[in-house]
Write a structure and sequence with these properties.
- The chain is an alpha+beta fold.
- The protein folds into eight domains: about 190 residues, no CATH class; about 60 residues, no CATH class; about 120 residues, no CATH class; about 250 residues, Histidine kinase-like ATPase, C-terminal domain (Heat Shock Protein 90, 2-Layer Sandwich); about 100 residues, no CATH class; about 240 residues, no CATH class; about 80 residues, no CATH class; about 130 residues, no CATH class.
- Helix content is about 50%, strand content about 10%.
- It is built from 49 helices and 30 strands.
- The strands form eight sheets. Strands 15-14-13-16-9-8-17-18 form an eight-stranded mixed sheet, with helices on both faces. The chain has a six-stranded mixed sheet with strand order 19-20-21-24-22-23, with helices on one face. Strands 3-4-5-6 form a four-stranded mixed sheet.
- A hairpin with a 4-residue loop joins strand 20 and strand 21.
- Helix 5 crosses helix 12.
Amino acid sequence: MKTRRITLETHLHKIAEYDETVKNLESVFNIQKQKVIRYIGSVVTSFPTYSTHDAVHSMNIISAIEKILGQKTIKKMSGIDTFLILMCAYMHDTGMLYSDEEVKQLWETEGFQDFLTSARKREDEVGRAARKIDKAEKGEGCSVLEVRRSVAVILMEYFRPRHGQRIKHVTDARTSEFGSLLSIDDSFLPDRIIHNIYRISMAHNWSFEDILKEMPLADSFGVEEFHPRMVAYLIRMGDLCDMDNNRFNGVGIKVFGNLGEENLAHYFKHKSVETLHISSDGIVVVANVCYDMIQRECEENWLKHMEKAERDSALKNIFQNTVKEHINWKSWLEQEVTAGKMHSMELFPEKKFISVPELKYKILIDGEESESTHKNLKFLFSSEKAFKLIEDISIYQNNKLIFVRELIQNALDATKMQLYRTLSAYGFQFNEKTSPFDVERAYPNIFEEHAIMIHTDYSRETGKVYFSIRDKGIGISMDEFKRNILTTGRSWPERKEYQDEIKRMPEWLRPTGAFGIGLHTVFSVTDSLTIRTKSDSENKANEMTLYSGKKGGYAFCKKTNQTLQRGSEFSFSFLLTEELKEWVTGSNGGKLFLENVNDGIQKEIKKIMETWCVTPMVSIYADQDYGIPAFSQSTWYNELSRTEKENQLIDQSVESERYHFAFTDDYRSIMVWDREKDCALSFGMESMEGNNVCYKGIRLTERMESGKCSDSLYLNQMDVLDGAGNDWVDAARMKLSLAARRKLESVVEEATAFAKRIYVFMLDEFYQDNDIRNLTNDIDAMANRIYQKKEISLKEIWTEGCELKKKYWGVPEWWNHKMLTRKILPYFLIVKMLDKSIKLWDPESGMEEVQHIFCLADQLIKRWKMDWNGMHGESFQQSYFDQQMRTLLWHFLQIAGIGFSYVAFEKVNFDDNEKNTLFEYKNLITQKSFQFYQKAFPFCSQWKFTKDMYQCVEESAISGLIRWRPEFRNRVPDFIRWKYCLPNSALDKVFVEWRAEHCFSNVKPLEIFLRFSGIPEIVLDIPGENCPIGEKEKKVWRKFCTESYLNWKLFYRIRPLSEVAKDMLNKETIVLRRPFTTYISELFPVFHRMSLVSMDERRMEFSIHNSNTHGVQIDSQTKKRIFKEFWKEVERSHDPKGYVAMIGMEEYPMLGIENAEEQYHAQIGMLAKYPEIPLWDYGAGIKAFMDQFIGCPIDEKSQEIIDRIINSEGGKAVIHYIAVYRKKTGDDVKEEKIETQYREFLKDLIYCWADGRCTFG
């Protein structure tokens, strides 16, 4: 006879037959079971799109538990354990019930409104529902049916994760409308048993650790023991095992309307189960996720209302999410089984002999096993690198599309790996000196052939942006995907399969670093990312989908029959929220509906590319019509790729072991490649604002200045292509590390010195060129004729200018003489002639001596203006032309004003009444300036654009008074600086931009003569910090001094300037006299980089030297005044952290600390470097300390003051600091000796303070 199967219910009933207590428990269960069966079915009305949570679900849980326990174990179960299993199986989902009244109260709470606000930002069905509700509440038109459905979706999302903790609330008559219907009969049960029922039911939502922590292993009821942990664990296992095909309620779905994509994944998860066998030995699950089955059912039912493109996208998501749900379910079962085995002694009483079954869970995709299903493929985040990223990730918050930068960086790394393989296959031989420019010259299109493509598209229908980036890199094999991509933060050198290859690569071509950390920025806007990729190591392409941490960090991967070229494409979509939409389009006064959102997105993508991806190794294109050129073709470094420009001065070449260089066509910029450091630097004669440092093509939030050895060259761009990312930048790849910055400062300093020297070499070749020499001689000869021949006409000069043009530049047949741009060269030559003729003028001979030259300048401007008016199709606009004429006139008027200042000075009788004298001088200048302008510049004085410029003469002349009478320096507006007069001619000031683009010659030096306007800046920068001065530098300097206004007789009458200019390069120590230092330091900026070595107020002079010193040589009078100025500054100190500096003096050689930075020194009137004596306290602290000694006899108190300072915490610290500094600089002096000298310094300083404040013994 067949043995009847024992169930938990029959087992409870059998025990109840002979145990009165258990009989009462059975009665409670039967009543509660009927209540739950009757009412739990209503859950389908609240959760119509979820799998069923009704009585059948409870029965399935009980059935699964019975199979896990087995017949023998069931027979050994106590009555109370059996009762608890049955009760909790029926009770565990009662928390899913909610009433209308509860929803009404909930809706207005702050917590629920926060939930709605957060939900609106989501891209899934919940997000769409939340946005529809928001529109409906604002009255923006949304159908009633859509609102009804949306409310249901929102409530399901809100209550589902909270249903476990709601069980007690729902079944308590005091707190819930359902309480009277579902409350547990407590006429027999103690409160603690009911409390255990609640907690066990709730535990199906707890973590396993919480079960062990919050529940006891055993408790007792009557004569029996019960085991809350065991019961809770069995309920959890039974719940997970209820995964058969019939879990969804078809009627409920039809009433609601349809299933969304997220719910369909759960639906097909259950539909795809082919085997579900549960026993005490094992649990076997086989699921076959078949795309054809999902497609067929969706097209016939769930998605039949969709357009094909939308349906295909939805099908892909449903298919992948179904696999994902199986993997999640498998993972949960694995975790539960593993935990049960590891903690069996903490879950089950020994006498029960319960064993946790083995789990075999197989997931098939279209009938076959897949890599995606072997393991739970998820992102594994390298914690060490994660922490670094978290520290820096806040920088991302200001840019909502920062993922563009990160995806480009990843694409560049993969592409660089492939570039190396391609070049190696071509037979290109790499060595330690190979540069990107060598590769560009050998294979001109190679970087373009590996270009990266970005595409964006916005859909108004879905409100989503579709983004993709495609590279031609090495691709991603399935093995690499698992080893390297899923473990984010693993750098390229850490990947064993690439280590040998990367070691052979030049530093500049090696990939940046970690893959995947930046990839997580994608998940700031989307929940999933698809990668389509083809690697040479595999025959088929792969398709991978990564999900964000919010979606479990799941990774789906499969082989695809789609034909793909080698490389990878990353694609995803993200919801364009109103906030993002406004950000990318601009507010437009609230008229966002007028903006083209797709254009706005593309514009923002391009903006990010321009901001961050400055010099990528390969070209990058966005939507086909926009691109960023490759590193070797970028405007910053492209000249280095031109063979004819590399290492070329003008016609000569200069070789360097360490550097390669190339000038731009206008010679105002120089590009340098540091072969030793794998760095590229671009210097220019104009400074550009903003961050200028890139690491392997990606801009950092860093700015570096050019080296201290130059004031004329500005570092406008720098690319570091050396080393691994971790050696240079932070985890977010936004900033340099402190050590890296210090290293780069040295690299920049050395490169600046090199670039500066190359400029000097270029000028040396320029000055020695035969054409330039001959042209200069011809211009000089014509200048002499102009100066000597007062009646010479502009026509005669014009003819000479045209002859010079023909002689040196030739006249091509195609040259259109009627075009102003073709006639402009004679104008340039005439400007040069007029400038040189003025330099022959001795101001002592009076203004009449050169008035005809200024008249010729006026006629020249008039003719130039008439020529422009008669031309059409010119390459410059009238406004630009007019401004150039104004600049040209301004130059000549400045020169006239300087001469005027001398002439007027001779006519004014300066007496002791400064006010009257200055007034007399200014009146004379104002009167004469206007008369001179009217007479010498008849055209310009009437032309509306220049008629007011007579004031330039006046201002220049008044300012010139300072040079003759220093006592007026604080009373005369300083409208000009002498440096305005230093350029070779006005030619250096006019049409600079135009000449750089339009002036060419077959003879390079002649081209430089026309195009290069930076000679003065370069020459005046020759004497510089850490820049040795050789014969070339001296030759260029002397030549310039001869050619420029420095050689003008008027300037040579000013002694300080003439002495300095004449022998500057032949002296180590330069003596300057006040008050001319302000002008001299502006003429020769090198001075403020030199060190102050002596000061002598009695002689009104000081000396500077090209090397540092421990102390400045100061006479006693100057020393006393410095000390007094120090105490005045201390007296004014109120800031507790305000430091008052003290200049280092030769009298105290041990105490001076060299200062690397130049500082302004009021007494000498310029910036300079000088040592400082460190002090024991801030200014306010010194003042407070010394105030207590006011009125005391200083002879008695001075020693006490000194002792207290020396023995104070600050005194000890400063002595130790000086000793450490001395040791670092190779001067190991004992602290005792330093203290002795510091005492001498304090004694002198305190005696100066005592004068007027204390009595002297």
